[in-house]
Queue: 4 jobs
Job 1
Amino acid sequence: MAISQDKITEIFFNIDEFCQQLDQLIEASSIGNPPKRKPKMSHSEIMTIMVLFHLKGFRDMKTFYNSYVLVHMKSEFPETVSYNRFTELMQKACLPLVLFLKHCCMGEGTGIAFIDSTPIRVCKNKRIFNHKTFDGIAAKGKSTMGWFYGFKLHLVVNDRGELLSFMITPGNVDDREPLKNESFINSLQGKLFADKGYISKTLSELLFGNGIHLFTGIRRNMKNCLMSFNDKILLRKRSVIETINDQLKNICQVEHSRHRSFGNFISNLVAGLVAYSFFEKKPSIKFETENTGQMAIF
């Protein structure tokens, strides 16, 4: 993906402004003397490189850092470190990156939202029993594409393609479980559209009590339910969130089998979500209502 110099400056400016405010809050409540020697690269520089990796189309961070950042981005990052040191700094920048995602990259609720989960595989199926990196953390689950070993990324987006909420769970967790978490749904309002995997009478009543109307398709053995024509159209527009999941995996590289630690997995996934928030064009739908004044007969 081609990124202009202005876009790189915009990404660094937003991240650096957030890091400066975060550092002021930390210094105000910290105990003891600050370290005398400052690192060569700041958190904002580390976070910017992590985000740019997901926007440049490289397959692995090592090639991107050694072959691109150190060679072609000397003017943007004059004080660089070795790749081994950079990976250590990435772990330290994970928490500020998560806070930046939660506070600066989330969209606003519009009354229309879509929810879906996508599997994040950490290894191929034939290597499940020999996989040790995520032993005791990841789990074996099943999606519409078959069995996998890893995690699930639960996403909620609005009709503009902006992220509203996200959650990472082991692969064997039911898709409906995150909706029972208040912190996951506190930013949602209005109508929420999902696939048949979210069908649950108890869950619908729970969400309705929180001001959220859940819409799902129906199975063959279920009775048809009354739904307005606009809601039926919006239910068919779930391809928006499916397209976002595809972009996260194929453009932002949030899924690969080269992780060597859980911290590396989280930092890579969060950086991919931040990178998506800087997309100039996001999958979206045009939804307009027109009041004709005509009477509706049921």
Note: Residues 226 and 298 are 10 Å apart (CA to CA).
Job 2
Amino acid sequence: MVNRRRFLTGAGALAAGMAGLGGYATAYEAGMRLDLTSYDLSSSHWPADLPIKIAVISDIHACEPWMPAERIGAIVDLANAQKPDLTVLLGDFVGTQHFVTRYVAPGAWAEQLARLEAPLGVYAVLGNHDWWSAAMPTDPPDNAQSVRKALAGAHIPVLENAAVSLSLKGRPFWLVGLGDQLAFRYGRRHAWGTDDLRGALREIKDDAPAILLAHEPFIFPKVPDRVALTLCGHTHGGQVNLPFIGAPFVPTKRGVKRYVYGLYQEGERQLIVSGGLGTSNLPVRFNRPPEVLSVALRGA
């Protein structure tokens, strides 16, 4: 039998361990750590003589103390240090969780993002939290208008069911941005979006290769083979990734739950789901540190 002293000793050790683990998951991994994750991909739907390097930033969720403007500045510095041809932002700029000391004004995070540098430009799509809240969460929701205004102030175009033709080394390709798939919600279980994949792809006027940006990865089963690469965020890689269990808290839509984190290949189609940078619901990350992506894409 366990005596009282042994029980209290064991309980104290467990409590200390849990406190230490909690401190790591909040103060360090969620609030301080920043990783660079690199991918080197080849695709038969991308020209062999047109290698491209893309910096990917997703799910900033600006708020203090977890994601202040200074930390967003460090994220920008890391992305710029990769010398990308193109930088893309995959939505959820707004930090809507309640465990904050202060919300970050949109002008402050936009001022940092305005420093992003890439020869082909910086482009963004919106995320569900950008729709569910105003850019300053204490203001009423405004259908993402304040987030669009902040990005416009940073000279970052937002692609919503739209495609833009870009040129690298004299060779054209298309960058396609999808509207958010969870823009409107009814209660906790029902949501619908502004996404129009067919409409976005109709803007492609020739057979030049294409890259798709979408905040949520749920759309991937519908993406055609002619899209060389799809880049998504939203899931935070599960945000909490437990040993032997994985990520128990993964958002779903219409039964699609299999795209959580990393690289997926289905036939000739490729998807990367970023682990993102910030947090939602709770300021906790475990075994899924915040990350900036550096993606090199070349022809097969």
Note: The chain has a mean pLDDT of 88.
Job 3
Amino acid sequence: MKDEYDLIIVGAGPIGLACAIEAKKNKLSYLIIEKGALTNSLYNYPLYMTFFSTAERLEIGGIPFNCIAPKPGRQEALEYYRNIQKYFDFNIHLYEEVLNISKNEVSQFRVQTNKFKYKSKNVIIATGFYDIPNMLNIQGEDLPKVHHYYKEAHPYSFQDVVVVGANNSAIDAALECYRKGANVTMVIRGEGFTDNLKYWVRPDIENRIAEGSVKAYFNSNLKYIDENSVTIQTPKEDITLKNDTVLAMTGYQPNFSFLTNAGIILSKDELKTPTYNPENMETNVSGLYLAGVVCGGMRTNIWFIENSRAHAKQIMQHIISKKELS
């Protein structure tokens, strides 16, 4: 097995694959390492999720993304990126987790996984943000009825369901569960929904709340979770409701420990923004790059597939320029 490369890419999401395409174009030896399935985050999205972006904005490598509907869904995206893998035949290791990235005295990276050790001149971290949920940090959050990931509505049919959150994932879960027969209550910390709510979903959830089909408590927080109930802190009083399931759709965050262990400096504020040069995506560690959503730190809503595809070319241009100078 070849264990030394020009480039190792950590993460086989759409942006990691885009980086591999650029590496192939520039005839660099490379390896993609992914701890789960191909496009693992997309695989773990809700079954019937619809993307905000249109199909052409999810394309990579100049390969058309053919889609009948204006907005593709999860299944179509998985099919597209599987076809990308078939077409480019990437050098990729799935179900192998990168544990540590370090740099030795001769400016060579050592990448330790749960299976092997590798050497590389450059490393791209394109790990996204979907693996670590933002916790509520309240009593009862560890109960089996509390879920930070949502797949589909059927298991919650005819149940008393509380959905925590005001973003797209929370709204999708609330509407799908309601339509499968659940008694849905939403708990929302702010005065309303997030500004980046899918435009075709906003009137749906607002109308369902207005007619009373979905209950919603704004400016409120989930205070306690018990075996058969939840307590909600509202502006007026604490309310206890009968409850079977809590869907805590409170968002996710990158693996900051993984970044800092690799030597990347994070901002000292609550955003924890990684240090990188926006012109070439290189971090404060020479030869170590970031690509995709992971660049935003806690601001996981500023980078998407469509606006971070460009990272791949930026990085590769920088790597090639360094190679030409050496």
Note: The chain has a mean pLDDT of 94.
Job 4
Amino acid sequence: MLDFVIILLFILAAAGLGFDSVELLPQSVQDQASNLEALRLVTAVFGAIIGFAVGLMVQVTYRRFQAQVRKMPIEVLLTRAVGLVLGLLIANLMLAPIFLIPLPLDFGFIKPLAGILGSVMFAFLGISLADTHGRTFLRLINPNSIESILVAEGTLKPASSKVLDTSCIIDGRIEELLNTGFVEGQILVSQFVLQELQQLADAANDQKRIRGRRGLEILNRMQQAYPDRLVIHPADYEDVNTVDAKLVRFAQEINGTLVTNDYNLSKVANLQKVPVLNVNDLAQAVRPIYLPGDSIELKILKEGKEPSQGVGYLDDGTMVVVEEGVSHLGGELRVIVTSALQTSAGRMIFARPQASVAA
């Protein structure tokens, strides 16, 4: 709508100038015109065409400027704005004596020309100084905050806000990550995610109802434990149908990080340049790595494929095949890792009882 208004204003302004420009022609030329009104219409149409072209250029320039401003960090935007205001203020103070100098009428154009040039020069000077000394200006705003000084110096980058999706909340591991302190920044739960949890909790299907209620209970515990960090954000997008698309758009608008355990959502967000923290990837990354020679305390739960083999499982679900372990079925023993195998179904570890290795 704004693009249309910009172009329309330029068309109307140029058409008006073209219509009235006939009056600027010499009287002898006007007298030669057989139909002065038709001439006005022709010049108005040509003016409208030129106005459309200029308006289109202004609209494209405005959109590029808007995109740059959106990508600009808030501290840079703030310091540049202050530098621009200070530059214009100094320009007006320094140029005021020039306007008091009496000049002949023939040289009257010098005053407005000096005012325009001085304002432009000092405005750019103010922005340039803000880019150079903006960090010092941020210190003046909040000199008592060590964090703000480190951010101003570029030593510390502020933690981005984390946007939680429905599956991540229901999964519950985000609560443990918060408790351990590995997740920094503000935790945002959008209104449409909360509505989806409520719909699941009210569903007729038992599994969906259990999942929805679990998610709401986890959110309540997190809000009680971290009332200052967890925020229910009212953002919603009526023109977007799916919750996943709304989450990606919301994270884009606030420059936040999307936290999820949904593989497909992670890929879609990555394609749209949205930072993603996948809880499943984190769990995979922190799984303990056992090398040959490492010892494990393991409970043998069942028999293996071979007659002498016993099978147990680590806390993360990794299967451990123990040679000569069938005799310890139902009991616990210490085993020594002999090898590991990565398969399409997951990771397998092969081991032997510590007693047999020592022997």
Note: DSSP finds 14 helices and eleven strands in the chain.
